[in-house]
TrEMBL record:
<feature type="transmembrane region" description="Helical">
    <location>
        <begin position="20"/>
        <end position="39"/>
    </location>
</feature>
<feature type="binding site">
    <location>
        <begin position="89"/>
        <end position="94"/>
    </location>
    <ligand>
        <name>FMN</name>
    </ligand>
</feature>
<feature type="binding site">
    <location>
        <begin position="605"/>
        <end position="609"/>
    </location>
    <ligand>
        <name>NADP(+)</name>
    </ligand>
</feature>
<keyword id="KW-0274">FAD</keyword>
<feature type="binding site">
    <location>
        <begin position="599"/>
        <end position="600"/>
    </location>
    <ligand>
        <name>NADP(+)</name>
    </ligand>
</feature>
<dbReference type="InterPro" id="IPR017938">
    <property type="entry name" value="Riboflavin_synthase-like_b-brl"/>
</dbReference>
<keyword id="KW-0288">FMN</keyword>
<dbReference type="Pfam" id="PF00667">
    <property type="entry name" value="FAD_binding_1"/>
</dbReference>
<keyword id="KW-0812">Transmembrane</keyword>
<feature type="binding site">
    <location>
        <position position="481"/>
    </location>
    <ligand>
        <name>FAD</name>
    </ligand>
</feature>
<keyword id="KW-0472">Membrane</keyword>
<dbReference type="InterPro" id="IPR039261">
    <property type="entry name" value="FNR_nucleotide-bd"/>
</dbReference>
<comment type="function">
    <text>This enzyme is required for electron transfer from NADP to cytochrome P450 in microsomes. It can also provide electron transfer to heme oxygenase and cytochrome B5.</text>
</comment>
<feature type="binding site">
    <location>
        <begin position="457"/>
        <end position="460"/>
    </location>
    <ligand>
        <name>FAD</name>
    </ligand>
</feature>
<keyword id="KW-1133">Transmembrane helix</keyword>
<keyword id="KW-0285">Flavoprotein</keyword>
<dbReference type="InterPro" id="IPR001709">
    <property type="entry name" value="Flavoprot_Pyr_Nucl_cyt_Rdtase"/>
</dbReference>
Length: 681
């Protein structure tokens, strides 16, 4: 946030003739100004390196001493390191993979460090050739609609716009993506190709991880072959030394004053007591829950309409944006870990990086209690990855438990099969593993080091700021399911939200940390542009905001274009959400047409895709003849792909094009933001 000051200048009218003319004063001011800037600019240039302070970025994993923009190179040289692993991460997985690679480097006599490209001057990659047997590895996720992650954006743009000579740079790239999305691993593929174009040497072929399948398996398989290529390229051999070295050491903080102990804050101590604008991923806003009501009319499933109060927060959102919600783990699971490990969850501790030069001093805000770490900072409900299995082996006292962990940690076909069936298929989390392998008793501080960070959850905003400037609405299905081991797994965020029911005005209202994430999912700039919206289930969420905004424009007397909505659910009398609202918009003319598909209200299932195939003329009239916009929101794995195929067929048939021409037409629609998708898998 930029702050500005307004300076009030007062003038006095003088009637007598001044002894010094205005021209003299002007010349004097110019001379003084020039002299001032010349002197201080010279002084700044001569002493900038002395005046720049050492700073710590507690939320980064850059391992960079902030003494200059090129310090990652200086650190490599000063500490005798030859391996740097950069990560582009939105949810923490790429960052985790980068850490595992850097740690394994020691087995190949390559001391490594992990770096955040956002905190580095990436132009200094040209200096990597000055370090003997050096290697740069990039673990890069593709985010959204083929976009770089936030922390890799500057690096991506530097590669696009720059022409640096990277001859002598040795590199390898691993991409993290999802095949259900159109732009699968697009950023990693681009970086891999662009580095080669700039003269760098690819030590190992790019690896492409698919989060829709088994990205852990993809990564482990690629990593094994990576080290084979590294050994061949540099003429080195594996030392055989295990890399199970702790990255953090335990510090007893029992004497720390209570006011210096974190209690769930994301970055700044006491940030929820003393809120400061602007609010973002590291500084969320503690919002009150204004409304929490059930949308389903019957049945055993639940869908919540929730309104977050942002009055007085200075936060602004646009229709189509996302809101991030920071969840916390259930006390039942947290207590279970304490019980299984016979640990005092209220003991205050800190984990301190053993690399004294690293800017990431702690894996999460420290000091805190174990209860706080397990509740707010660590993911205890997802499936642990294979490296955690490996680290748990030493804590198993039963040989059978040891062998099972060794098998799942191995990269053999049998090991991969066991890990897939026992961890992934049976959907075991760390609590279930500790329950089912009772002799495994890891030190709680080590477990806290191993577990990934608990991530915020993103929801499409289902309101318009024109109509609701002081609140943000979301539409969320409660996630509960029974696994093959007869355990009930619960969605972390939705089950927390379900408990946050507003009370009467006399009692404190429930709160939850949130922030707004900008989106490219936008209404056309002109309100008269016709649009088609396809959103079954909670895919309706952003379109509720779209319709509200167009209705607001209509009530202001502005011309609005056709609005056609395709919505589907199981049963009309069970999960037709926002039914009354939608019917009202149809009645007042804001919503031109409402196409409904209730999949289980008749013997043969009926989906929105069936309705699209029945309305070819309407589709072409809007997207072809009237150059309208088309929007899709919902399931990426099947629905969004099916819609895309139908649109291509419509363009072929009604536009009289070949398949290739139709694909190019749809591609151009996407580039012009006339075909937009907000999907998830």
């Amino acid at each position: 946030m930029e702050n500005s000051e307004g300076v009030k200048i007062e003038s006095t009218v003088v009637t007598e003739e001044p002894s010094i003319s205005a021209l003299d004063i002007a010349l004097f001011v110019v001379i003084i100004t020039v002299a001032y800037f010349w002197y201080f600019k010279r002084d700044k240039q001569s002493s900038s390196s002395e005046k720049k302070p050492y700073t710590i970025q507690p939320s980064s994993l850059s391992s960079i001493e902030q003494t200059s923009n090129s310090s990652f190179i200086k650190k490599l040289k000063s500490t005798g390191r030859s391996l740097v692993v950069f990560y582009g991460s939105q949810t923490g997985t790429a960052e985790e993979f980068a850490g595992r690679i850097a740690k394994e480097g020691a087995r190949y006599k390559m001391k490594g460090m992990v770096a955040d490209p956002e905190e580095c001057d990436m132009a200094d990659l040209v200096e990597m050739k000055e370090i003997q047997k050096s290697l740069a590895i990039f673990c890069i996720a593709t985010y959204g609609e083929g976009d770089p992650t936030d922390n890799a954006m500057d690096f991506y743009e530097w590669l696009q716009n720059g022409d640096a000579d990277l001859e002598g740079l040795n590199y390898a790239v691993f991409g993290l993506g999802n095949k259900t999305y159109e732009h699968y691993n697009e950023i990693a593929i681009y970086i891999d190709q662009r580095l080669e174009e700039l003269g760098a040497t690819r030590v190992h072929e790019i690896g492409l991880g698919d989060d829709d399948a088994n990205i852990e398996d993809d990564f482990v398989s690629w990593k094994e072959k990576l080290w084979e290529s590294v050994c061949s390229h540099y003429g080195i051999e594996e030392t055989g030394e295990e890399s199970n070295i702790r990255q953090y050491k335990l510090v007893d903080c029992s004497e720390v004053l209570p006011e210096r102990i974190f209690s769930g804050e994301i970055s700044r101590l006491k940030s929820y007591e003393n809120q400061r604008f602007p609010f973002d991923v590291k500084n969320p806003y503690l919002s009150k829950i204004a409304v929490n009501r059930e949308l389903h009319k019957s049945g055993d499933r639940s869908c919540m309409h929730i309104e977050f109060d942002i009055d007085g927060s200075k936060m602004r959102y646009d229709t189509g944006d996302h809101v991030a919600v920071y969840p916390k783990n259930s006390s039942e699971l947290v207590d279970k870990i304490g019980e299984l490990l016979n640990a005092d969850l209220d003991a205050v501790f800190s984990l301190l990086n053993t690399d004294e030069e690293s800017s990431k001093k702690h894996p999460f805000p420290c000091p805190c209690t174990y209860r706080t770490a397990l509740t707010y900072y660590l993911d205890i409900t997802s499936n642990p990855r294979t490296h955690i299995m490996k680290e748990l082996i030493e804590y198993a006292s039963d040989p059978k438990d040891q062998e099972k962990l060794k098998l799942m940690a191995s990269s053999t076909p049998e090991g991969k099969k066991e890990f897939h069936e026992w961890i992934l298929r049976d959907n075991r989390n760390i609590v279930h593993i500790l329950e089912d392998l009772p002799s495994v008793k890891p030190d709680l501080d080590h477990l806290c080091e191993l577990l990934p960070r608990l991530q915020c959850r993103y929801y499409s905003i289902s309101s318009s700021p024109k109509v609701y400037p002081k609140s943000i609405h979301i539409t969320a299905v409660l996630v509960n399911y029974t696994t093959s081991t007869n355990r009930v797994n619960k969605g972390v965020a939705t089950n927390l939200l379900a408990q946050l029911i507003p009370t009467n005005d006399e009692l404190p209202q429930p709160t939850i940390p949130i922030y707004i994430r900008r989106s490219q999912f936008r209404l056309p700039p002109k309100s008269q542009t016709p649009i088609i919206m396809i959103g079954p289930g909670t895919g309706l969420a952003p379109f509720r905001g779209f319709i509200q905004e167009r209705d607001y424009a209509r009530k202001e007397g502005r011309e609005i274009g056709e609005m056609v909505l395709y919505f589907g659910c199981r049963k009309k009398d069970e999960d037709f959400i926002y039914e009354n609202e939608l019917q009202e918009y149809v009645a007042n003319g804001t919503l031109t047409k409402l196409h409904l598909a209730f999949s289980r209200d008749q013997p043969e299932k009926k989906y929105v895709t069936h309705l699209l195939e029945q309305n070819v003329d309407e589709l072409w009239n809007i997207i072809g003849e009237k150059s309208g916009h088309l929007y899709v929101c919902g399931d990426a794995r099947s629905m969004a792909k099916d819609v895309h195929s139908i649109i291509v067929k419509v363009v072929m048939e009604k536009g009289q094009m070949t398949n290739s021409q139709a694909l190019n037409y749809v591609k151009k629609m996407e580039q012009q933001k006339r075909y937009s998708a907000d999907v998830w898998s």
